[in-house]
Amino acid sequence: MPTVKNTVIKKVIVLPRWQKIGLMVATDLVALPLCFFVALMLRHGGFKAATHYDSLPYLLVLGITIPVFIKTGLYRAVIRFIDQRLLTTTGMGLAVAILCAYLVEYWVRGTQLPRTALVIYWFIAFAYVTTSRLLVRRLLKVHQKDRRKNHHIVGIYGAAEPGAQLARAMWDDERYCPVCFFDEKSQFVGQTVAGLKVYPHARLAELTEKYGINLIVMAVPAASATRLRELVHDIHAVGIDVKIFNDLTAPAQAKVSTSSIRELKVEDLLGRDPVPPQPELFAQCVETKSVLVTGAGGSIGSELCRQIATLAPSALHLLDHSEYALYTIQRELHAVSPSLRIVAHLGSVCDKRLVERILRDTQIDTIYHAAAYKHVPLVEANIAEGLLNNVIGAQVIAAAAEQYGVSTCVLVSTDKAVRPTNIMGASKRIAELIFQAAAEQTLSDTTFCMVRFGNVLGSSGSVVPLFKQQIEQGGPITITHPDVIRYFMLIPEAAQLVIQAGAMAKGGDVFVLDMGKPVRIVDLARSMLEAAGLTEKTQDNPRGDIEIRFIGLRPGEKLYEELLIGENASASAHPRIMCANEHKLEAVALEHLVKSLVAACEENNRDKMLQCVKLLVREYGPEIAKQRDESSQLVERESKSLHAARVVPMVQST
């Protein structure tokens, strides 16, 4: 029986406000005539005498009482917040309604209802109104108290439609017990939304303690990342957890679910607005096309596959040398797009015979070449392998695309290719030169282009997974230098840029995203601490949770990255994407230098490899290390002295 009661209460709670009002009015339409009949019975001392009256007195009492209740605000009030003032107003209104009914009856028919019966009716009706509302409020409080046991007591930040939908979804989920809203907008404060009262931001600390709130869920889709950071900081200062409602762009007809409540991610607090794709460009090189993605199991490659699968290609071919990564993305794509033809090819992009066989047998229309070694320190320590994979891979793909008439071939490049100080960046610049040279072939029907962007949040090898691991281990967070800055973007955004680039390309284009302002890595680390509900441990705050420690720049690392080699950038078909005009190498000279580079790699001759790289990439400048080393040594000494001064043990993150 308690289960049935709880089910009924939950169903009533999640009803829209107008349906709840309708339910209350319908109940009163039945109950008030019964109250009047009981009053007549008590006045005349029996059932039979009370039945002598026709329907007019009942209709009069009902027709006047309901509008009076509406006027006094009884139906607008939320039962959980009914107070003595409202009940007093309702009692006075009920008295006015009875007096009006008496006068109308007398004026219409000249007969008088028993005045004592009307007085008795007032007591019975008022008792009904009071008892029924208080009983429902009691049931709701008991139900809410039961829900609070071992469950999240939630305050929802944001009382607009997403927050209202979330509140209704929470009433259907035993894990959550919503108790109120918080909002900054004056039109919401003091109102009732989805059965919950809306309070101002200023009362966050007070009401958190009053209601025992242990979780705030953010439902503010219009909030900027900067404002979101401020709100998260204020909430964490109160000492409670924060999560975010992620289903803010779902269609209006879609059913909102609490499964869309998730932990805050660093990208939520990054502070730049993503660049939206243009529909007319997005599907142009994919829809009804046969598409090949190299490096399909990697961070960028796998997201490319996910986005392409939504654009109705005729077939999607995946190439990766990692068996597990290839299996994982193939299985994921089959699950979400069971009708799409997906073909997985296991092997290296440097395998010329494999690549040619794929293109010969499958009639590929579009290639997205994302396969590459990209981890700077690893490539710096394994120069030959990094150069061979990144350079030969680009060469094989470009040659095969031209040979087998691929319509569009897009190279995924990086900002580290601009004036590179490391082998990884230099190898990607050589790959760009190879694609630029391929675009110059007058007999080619293939449109070659390159897409260059900054760091991708959450990709393998990026700082975000490293910082997350260090936070989980209790720190310290290690950063090479306090002044290191980087451009950042989201993985889906990067994939969308790559897909759109092919549609805009004329041949040999280098597309660059307008990435806004770069982000200091130390600020990124602090944002991650904020998202985790932790504080930085410093000399001024020795009781903080996690220390940030500076360890000095790594070999080949720059303080800042660039997206353009020169200043000649022009507009493209997308308002937030630029087209860079970079210098090229003649195809014959490029081919000769690449052959020399490959030979040096096969000999593992480091000096010769570096010499070839410098001839190919005239901007390559690894010899800026003196200033870097001096600054690194200074930072390392300062870091050690600071660390020695901190005697408070590190608090483990839970």
Overview of the structural elements:
This protein is an alpha/beta fold and 654 residues long. The chain has 3 domains: 2-145, no CATH class; 150-264, Rossmann fold, CATH 3.40.50.720; 279-640, Rossmann fold, CATH 3.40.50.720. Helix content is 49%, strand content 15%. It contains 22 helices and 22 strands. The strands form 5 sheets. It has a 9-stranded mixed beta sheet with strand order 10-9-8-11-12-13-18-22-21, sandwiched between helices. It has a 7-stranded mixed beta sheet with strand order 3-4-2-1-5-6-7, sandwiched between helices. Helix 17 (463-472) crosses helix 19 (521-531).
Q: Which tags fit this structure?
A:
22 strands, disordered C terminus, elongated, 9-stranded mixed β-sheet, 22 helices, single chain, Rossmann fold, alpha/beta, 7-stranded mixed β-sheet, 654 residues
Please state the oligomeric state of the protein chains shown. Answer: single chain
> Could you give the distance between the termini?
40 Å
Global Rg: 35 Å
Cross-sheet strand order for the largest sheet: 10-9-8-11-12-13-18-22-21
From the 3D coordinates, which CATH architecture of the largest domain would you assign? 3-Layer(aba) Sandwich
CATH class of the largest domain: Alpha Beta
What is the number of strand segments? 22
The percent of residues in helical segments reads: 40-55%
The H-level CATH homologous superfamily of the largest domain, spelled out, is NAD(P)-binding Rossmann-like Domain
Number of helices: 22
CATH topology of the largest domain: Rossmann fold
